[in-house]
Every structure is written in C-alpha cells, then in structure tokens.
Design brief:
Blueprint: H1 2-16, E1 30-39, E2 46-55, E3 59-62, H2 66-73, E4 78-88, E5 92-101
InterPro entries: TRL-like
Organism: Leptospira ilyithenensis
Protein name: TRL-like family protein
Length: 102
C-alpha cells in the first residue's frame, strides 16, 4: 500500500510539473527536438542562438528573439531559422531560436 501511494505521488508531481517548451512533440519524461521554421535553401555561414528557459513552469527568463540571435553571430542577412527545445521531467525546459545567415 505504501508503494502504491508513493507511485501515485510521483506521477502526480510529474503531471503538475508544467515546464514545457510548448512547440513540437513533447515527451512525458524527456524532450529534445530541433524544428526548421524558415529557410531559403542557401548554405548559412554563421549561426547565432538565443534561448529562453523555464523552471517548474513557474519561472521563465531569457531573450529568445531572432534579433538577439542575429546580434550574437553578427548576422546581417537571415537565411534560416530553427527552434531547439529541451524539457527534462517537466522541471526544466528551454526553447532556443537559432538564426543562420551571412
């Protein structure tokens, strides 16, 4: 009976932990995806990444804008944009915007 109660508590906590990147497929325990959003077909020479993070679905912080990603890599012309997501046990998640270009 004690084991059953602990299992119910464990899965209840997992269900309540709401840190999700919000895009693409989400795994119950772990998510790691890369999704292409935009591309011109040209081969990118530089890549910049800008991320936002969430803890327990309670705290979120960061600057995940395309402008921030461009600035980090000194990109003038954007040729592709990708999203990268990571989520671990619903406790931590991140969404990164990766800009590629010249």
């Amino acid at each position: 009976m004690k084991t059953k109660g602990l299992l119910i508590l464990f899965f209840s906590v997992l269900e309540l932990a709401c840190a999700s990147p919000g895009f693409g497929p989400n795994g119950f325990l772990v998510t790691q995806t890369k999704i292409g959003i935009f591309g011109t077909g040209e081969k990118s020479q530089k890549f910049g990444k800008a991320c936002v993070f969430s803890l327990l679905g309670l705290f979120a912080y960061g600057d995940g804008s395309i402008e921030n990603a461009k600035r980090k890599a000194n990109i003038n012309i954007v040729e592709e944009i990708n999203w990268e997501t990571i989520s671990l046990f619903g406790i931590y998640s991140s969404l990164c915007v990766e800009a590629g270009g010249k």
